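Complex record, four chains
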Amino acid sequence: MTANLNVTTVVGNPKRLSRTLTTAEALAAAIAAGLGTEPRAESVDLAELYLTGLEPPHGGFERLLGQIRSGDVLIVATPVYKGSYTGLLKLFLDQLPPKALEGTVTVPVTVAASREHRLLADLHLRPVLAELGAKTPVPSLTLVEGELPELDARLGAWTEAHLADLADALAFGRRPIGASA
Amino acid sequence: MTANLNVTTVVGNPKRLSRTLTTAEALAAAIAAGLGTEPRAESVDLAELYLTGLEPPHGGFERLLGQIRSGDVLIVATPVYKGSYTGLLKLFLDQLPPKALEGTVTVPVTVAASREHRLLADLHLRPVLAELGAKTPVPSLTLVEGELPELDARLGAWTEAHLADLADALAFGRRPIGASA
Amino acid sequence: MTANLNVTTVVGNPKRLSRTLTTAEALAAAIAAGLGTEPRAESVDLAELYLTGLEPPHGGFERLLGQIRSGDVLIVATPVYKGSYTGLLKLFLDQLPPKALEGTVTVPVTVAASREHRLLADLHLRPVLAELGAKTPVPSLTLVEGELPELDARLGAWTEAHLADLADALAFGRRPIGASA
Amino acid sequence: MTANLNVTTVVGNPKRLSRTLTTAEALAAAIAAGLGTEPRAESVDLAELYLTGLEPPHGGFERLLGQIRSGDVLIVATPVYKGSYTGLLKLFLDQLPPKALEGTVTVPVTVAASREHRLLADLHLRPVLAELGAKTPVPSLTLVEGELPELDARLGAWTEAHLADLADALAFGRRPIGASA
């Protein structure tokens, strides 16, 4: 447990205030509550960030990048569009500097309209996160829209299965390698 | 051969007037010259199309969609960013109606900075094009930046290998299935 | 139409006489009936081919390779195992010489236990076929086990949608590029 | 540090005693030496395991499965064949029970002949490992054959970058979630 766990959520749904956003924020809250005593969770709707154009680095972009770098956990959320993550999300990731997520513990969240598409955005997103240097130590939360009414149960199952591993990856109180146990 | 072969090129490089654009236009010209007697090739720089914002369907978007639908060949070009196609390209593809490319003969063009990334954008792009219903009957033109000085030779090798198959897929003068040969 | 259309089917299900085999053979028959007047379809169960060991090139392997090369259409069929095509199928593909399928018109068939896995084997298989030089001009037939009772309807829909494109790719009676139409 | 760190290496190169094997064993030794005081590393050449046939579960298979389950780290090594992991490796993974690698900390090693293929086996392998429930908390070791003469330097860079994260994932001495730090 740590007092100042910071969870940043980035949402790549072109529609503002989407169910992708509420789903990702619910996961952020569950992680923050599970691992931090005074959790702080902030979320950025990329549909807001790029509202006036797609030109690279501007104020909002730089603030978000700083927030990700100083935070503990990054949640990257996307609906499944055309069988993959959204272009809006990738537009943001494209504008990040090389290896911008080096060492950042990252958890993808994907929401698909159909079961056939459930795994697809995750399949394509993880290599992009790897290219950026992100750590993705636990499985993504991959949901189908029909499961959203039972979101609490899904979140419970996910945290039950993966919160301990996430805590390990965050390495709070990590002992130096080579130190005696 | 057909008199009115139309080739539309869509370029997903966030930088306007990129080498991705000139490469894709060179392929468009080679295809048009090889298969049509009065070739018409038009290209759209998505960096232009989304210059003032990324909001879905507007005039330029609708014109481009109409052009693609009435054309014969679509070239979809992207640099390799973060190990995949660009977010800008996917932003455009995301805004297309379901199955918008049904029956459209499509050829991807990718330009990578390193050999390690040469095949990656194509690997991730083709399933998205398939989801949109596009026909992709021939291999993509996948280039590394270091090869751009020898673009003519690369284009020559590609057309030599694939132009006949592309012509077959265009099915100019297709005989009905079941008709005697 | 052509009198001597040859369809070869290769089945990568480790269980002999599988539903993958019967599904693939049904597609082979539908293609042969749709495009050839005296169709010949042969199928090879890789579970038979590798029954006594997995050592590379032996008699059965060489016969199958010859059959593929002299044939018109290759059907490559696999169940979805662990989210991808089977190792048995890839074992066979690995043993093929480089570019062994150059110019071979190939149609993948995949059968998944769940809808989540429907698209996965195809997603991973097509790049391998591309590496081998295969032409894959039409979408794969991707089925879920629960759809097998309605196989005839699925085959009908597939042939209705894609047989003409397959015929174009086979280019029976192809006119030379540049000849007047 | 732990006294009894067990590293199991599974090698999917159809050629016995391959450079893939020696590379994977070198990584196993580096991990064992870095994290355990009395390291034990064992490796299984799948080309040996399947020497007399590919029929599922037999003595060697069961022993290997037991070894993986009782071990701490699993290294899964493959050359890049036809743009992906080998069929031999997948044949073994296909025969594992569902979720057989649940909780197993796994590190992929891939060796490619060309730079174009460097990332491909890893890209396709990680989703299969995820389907089996494996934990893959650190990046794979992806090598090109031309780098093998400088293997020590590559191993040094990999362990420098990732050994601490691997130790975290192994969670030696993990504190219960919710316990005070």
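Note: Chain B has a mean pLDDT of 91.
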